[in-house]
Design goal:
The complex is a heterodimer of chains A (about 300) and B (about 250). Chain A is an alpha+beta fold. Chain A has 12 helices and 4 strands, in the order αααβαβααβαβααααα. Helices cover about 75% and strands about 10% of the residues of chain A. Chain A has a 4-stranded antiparallel β-sheet with strand order 2-3-1-4. The relative contact order of chain A is 0.17. With about 250 residues, chain B is an alpha/beta fold. Chain B is about 30% helix and about 25% strand. In chain B, helix 4 (about 130-140) crosses helix 5 (about 145-155) and helix 4 (about 130-140) packs parallel to helix 6. The longest helix of chain B is centred in the last third of the chain and has 16 residues, at about 200-215. Classes of the chains: A alpha+beta (about 300), B alpha/beta (about 250). Chains A and B meet through helix 2, helix 9 and helix 10 of A and helix 3 and helix 4 of B.
Chain lengths: ~300, ~250
């Protein structure tokens, strides 16, 4: 019922909110830009952490172990032994010549003969790609494979993933810390802005108190002003992030397929691209709300 | 009917502090707008404003409170609208014990009290009409209701032609009339005027008093503080005097 009553009088609240924002003048700009910077960085780091997760997932879903052989050992010789091991679903042999050719290709070199001569022959070794049945068996299988005669070393995605996961966790902490500090800054700026508006309207507030306006009714416009600053900040930040995404996508479209493949995992899912603006809006509203509550707190508690 | 009650009910006696009413002629509680019982107010810095004050104001009454400046007149009014709290005693306004009111209850009581200030307290950046309507918006009236009430209130004080002027474009008398319109636009049963003529010349003062009497004739209980003895004598209403924080009856 209270909400319904509010709605019938919302034109008053709207008018007072806009009037207040006009009184705020350039301070609004300070508040909105601080909130925007906060939300932009928050959005970018949130997106980055999602992309990181996507990448990890992409790697993690592959159950391959790369087995590098000693120099001079032929991949073809060891392939049947490995294929017969329990928990192995498939083995692919890659000779050092194939690896060399594809590496040269990826590096964009055409004169393979020349490069080989310069390096005093093909420096690579034969490689086997062993596919495990499930991810739990990967480390055990890797140890067994390592013990086979002629195997120099094995490498499976777990290590790379571990490192990436560490990096991702570190990045998350950095972004949580940064978001916290910037949130406090933004709240302080919003508080200052709203308090200036409150000060400018001290007389009106005094009169309102004397004629029996309820505390909520007096301060609701100020709370709405804070929320408005948060919303505007969120919209601008989202615009910037969308722009940045587009820019990077355009840039990637011109890159070789190898890089495009790497960044496939970085595509946001549909739910994530909906969640991003919602998260920005949420944090923006939070900062605006807390900032404006701080600004009117001194007056409400007396 | 209103005038009939007027004049007998300010229970104050010359040269002696007021006693609480105890005789058989005590008015029924439903007829009493304001009642102060043994009220003492001492500010936290030790300044003694009111001592053992008893007063009853009936509904429909027009009461003057006089006294030299600093005698406690304004404090008395502030106690009535809850700006200050008593140290001892009890105050009831329209049946509400003020000391019991918390938060929004006090706001709701203030909606029953119109207040006129010596310094008008108009909002400089809003027009006359906006200043008057401001009270209604502040109390959560709907747009329709605000428009319905605005014109009659301005007409009552004779300022409908200046509705779009800003306060600093008006004379002092006109500003005070705006503040009266603002005080009564939500039709409160009680009107408190704290030195409403303090900054005005005799002509304007008299005009303000005439408006207050018109409102009183419509049934609003009016309490006016003033130190203008001339004005009090002219208007022939009951008067109580505050002197050194004590209340004395002077006339009526």
């Amino acid at each position: 019922m209270g909400v319904l009553r509010l709605l019938t009088k919302s034109d008053y609240l709207l008018r007072e909110t806009l009037l207040g924002l006009r009184r705020g003048g350039w301070m609004n700009w300070a508040a909105v830009s601080t909130v925007t910077v906060l939300l932009f960085l928050f959005g970018v780091s949130l997106q980055a952490s999602w992309q990181m997760e996507g990448l990890l997932h992409q790697f993690g879903s592959q159950l391959e172990i790369s087995v590098y052989l000693d120099t001079g050992i032929q991949a073809k010789d060891l392939q049947p032994i490995m294929a017969a091991m329990p928990g192995v679903t498939g083995v692919t042999a890659i000779s050092k010549e194939e690896s060399w050719t594809s590496l040269m290709h990826e590096m964009g070199l055409s004169d393979i003969e020349g490069a080989t001569e310069q390096l005093d022959g093909n420096p690579l070794v034969d490689e086997l790609r062993v596919k495990a049945a499930d991810s739990d068996t990967v480390p055990v299988l890797a140890t067994k494979l390592n013990q086979i005669q002629g195997v120099d070393h094995v490498q499976y995605v777990d290590e790379a993933v571990k490192r990436l996961a560490q990096l991702s966790r570190g990045l998350n902490w950095v972004s949580i810390g940064m978001t916290t500090v910037l949130s406090l800054t933004a709240i302080a700026v919003v508080t200052t802005t709203i308090r200036l508006i409150v000060m400018a309207r001290r007389r009106e507030i005094e009169v309102m108190q004397l004629v029996g306006a309820t505390t909520t009714w007096i301060y609701l416009p100020f709370i709405l002003q804070g929320l408005a600053l948060g919303i505007v900040g969120a919209i601008v930040a989202w615009g910037l992030i969308t722009g940045l995404q587009k820019f990077i996508q355009d840039l990637l479209a011109q890159q070789p397929e190898f890089i495009q493949f790497l960044t496939n995992g970085m595509q946001l899912s549909a739910s994530e691209s909906l969640l991003l603006p919602l998260a920005l809006l949420g944090l923006g509203l939070f900062v605006g709300l807390i900032g404006s509550l701080f600004a009117v707190r001194r007056f409400t508690t007396r | 009917m209103i005038q009939g009650i007027t004049g007998r009910s300010a229970r104050a006696f010359p040269s002696q502090p007021l006693e609480p009413p105890s005789d058989s002629s005590t008015p029924q509680p439903s007829e009493i707008m304001v009642s102060l019982k043994q009220v003492t107010k001492i500010y936290t810095n030790g300044c003694q404003a009111l001592v053992d004050v008893n007063l009853q104001i009936r509904k429909g009454e027009f009461l003057f409170i006089t006294g030299p400046s600093g005698s406690g007149k304004s404090t008395l009014l502030k106690l009535l609208y809850g700006e200050e709290q008593v140290n001892q005693g009890a105050i009831a306004v329209n049946g509400n014990l003020i000391s019991n009111l918390r938060g929004n209850q006090l706001s709701m009581l203030r909606r029953q009290i119109g207040i006129v200030f010596q310094d008008y307290k108009l909002i400089p950046r809003r027009t006359v009409a906006e200043n008057v309507a401001f009270v209604l918006w502040a109390q959560g009236f709907t747009r329709k209701e605000v428009h319905r009430r605005l014109q009659p209130a301005l007409k009552m004080v004779g300022l409908q032609h200046k509705a779009d002027c800003f306060p600093d474009q008006l004379s002092g008398g006109e500003q005070q009339r705006v503040s009266i319109a603002r005080a009564v636009v939500n039709t409160p049963p009680l009107l408190l005027a704290d030195e409403p003529t303090g900054n005005l010349d005799p002509d304007n003062s008299w005009q303000v008093i005439k408006i207050l009497r018109k409102l009183n004739a419509m049934g609003i209980t009016v309490v006016v503080t003033t130190h203008d003895e001339q004005l009090v004598r002219q208007s022939n209403h009951p008067v109580v005097q505050v002197h050194n924080g004590r209340l004395y009856r002077v006339q009526g």
